[in-house]
Amino acid sequence: MGSLINAVTGTRPNLSYTITHLSQFNSSSSTKHPTAAKRVLQYLQGTKDRHLFYHWNNQLKMTADKDASYINCLDTRRSFSVYIFQIGTATISWRCRKQWAIATSTCEDEYMALAMTTKYHLWLKRGIQELLKIDIPNALV
């Protein structure tokens, strides 16, 4: 599981939800969890020749996208939040994590995901501006 987490962290954001969900069952797995992990490995084997391509001449514009899944974990009744940040067409950051509180509605679930994304957006934008000394326009999707 640790190797899969490293793959997600470095190069495979499309698997972040799957690996986050599977890693919850490390200490108490059933027979279906190793089967799911094998499916992930088969997917990685089948897609190892696909590559990300970053255009060098795109404008520096930060975009973000977020999503939330209402009560996706049936054990804890908590939802998952996902966000991804891009500058131009280059993905610079992504995250999938279980929310810290239990949402009582889909609207509250989406609001918590938006709050998490906005906090990280402000931190990321300020950090980039401080390091590069340039202003990056943003568009929250």
Short description:
With 141 residues, the protein is α+β, with helices and mostly antiparallel strands. It is built from four helices and four strands, in the order H-H-H-E-E-E-H-E.
- Helix fraction bin: 40-55%
- Could you list the spans in which at least 5 consecutive residues all have pLDDT below 50? none
Largest sheet: 4 strands, mixed
CATH class of the largest domain: Alpha Beta
Large-scale geometry: flat
For this structure, the CATH topology of the largest domain is: Ubiquitin-like (UB roll)
Backbone CA Rg: 17 Å
Query: How many domain regions?
Result: 2
In round numbers, the mean pLDDT is: 77
CATH-defined architecture of the largest domain: Roll
